[in-house]
Amino acid sequence: MEIGFLTPLGALLAAGVLLPLLALVGVSSRAARLREALGLARLARRRLVAPVLAASGAAALVGLAAAQPVLERTVPQRVRTDAEAYVVLDISRSMLAREEPGAATRFARAKAVAAQVRAGLPGVPVGLASLTDRVLPHVFPSADEDVFAAALADSIAIERPPPRSSFLSRATSFDALAEIATRRYFSPAARHRLVVVLSDGESEPVTAARVGRLFGRSPAIQTLFVHFWDEGERVFTRGASEPQYRPDPNARTILDGLAVATGGQVFGEREGAAATEAARQALGTGPTQVEGRRRDPVALAPLFAAGAFLPLGLLLWRRDR
């Protein structure tokens, strides 16, 4: 285990206690001179020890909290050897649709669910791919959750890459999912395979039976679909809705047909937790092996911040004495 600091300069905040301490010394000196002039007994210096220590302790704890200390434990990382999964995000332009300007787009909501699904599969190699009229893998199945998070944040974006043709009314084609089965997206050792598709379902006509047949080949690829769609959503440019876009009322029907053909399930976007649980159940349990080590960080700042209230409470308690 080791301790690091995310913002070490934050510890300088503790120096702020010097001003009240200097003020206390000045007031105490003035009070001593007044007592001497009036012929009163001098106050014992030990009466100042408690408030000085309490103020110094509170400042030190606040400074440590501001430095954001993190305790990192390095633990072995156990990885499934028989299971792999892909999270596939629809990056067509229709995924920019939202209820109103400033609201979260379908794409932003899908990325949040993608992160939720990944977090719910610890120890399982998970890949990340984008979907338009083709499937493009951005991360091949890996147990490294940081790699997945970085790719989700920086590599996945609307129409990056763009679809092959800009003349189609729908940029998404679920027929492209067949590429996952016909190309080497999964390693040969992965007997349990899962694809989680996050999409608004607005696609060109799809040959669901063909996708289902290819996904059914041994080892079969299991599927889950999460639907991001509302009939009132529009694509906005500079605050104005684009007249050429209208939500496709058949979107859910397309996803339902794919789910039937592939033996999968369809979830609404508010059912991210249920979809994550279904993903865990689909992959089940299996053999694991140690592949490297991972850091398990524990933030200590809240503990130090809470600890600062103890000496402050002592100061308030003594003030009433």
Walk me through this protein's architecture.
The protein is of the alpha/beta class and 321 residues long. Helices cover 38% and strands 23% of the residues. Strands 5-4-3-6-7-10 form a six-stranded mixed beta sheet, with helices on both faces. A three-stranded antiparallel beta sheet has the order 1-2-11. Helix 2 runs antiparallel to helix 10 and helix 6 runs parallel beside helix 7. The relative contact order is 0.17.
Bulk shape: elongated
Main sheet, how many strands, which sense, barrel?
A: 6 strands, mixed
What is the average of the pLDDT values?
87
Q: What proportion strand? A: 15-25%
Q: Give me the count of strands.
A: 11
Structural class determined from secondary elements: alpha/beta
Q: What fraction, in percent, of the residue positions are helical?
A: 25-40%
How many H/I helical runs? 10
- Helix and strand succession? EHHEEHEEHHEHEEEHEHEHH
Q: Tell me the radius of gyration.
A: 30 Å
- Spans of 5+ residues with little confidence (pLDDT < 50)? none
Beginning-to-end CA distance, first to last residue: 44 Å
Strand order of the largest sheet: 5-4-3-6-7-10
Concise description?
This protein has helices spanning 18-38, 46-66, 106-119, 145-154, 178-182, 208-215, 251-262, 272-283, 301-307, 309-319; strands at residues 2-5, 69-80, 83-90, 126-131, 135-142, 192-199, 221-227, 236-237, 240-241, 265-268, 288-299.
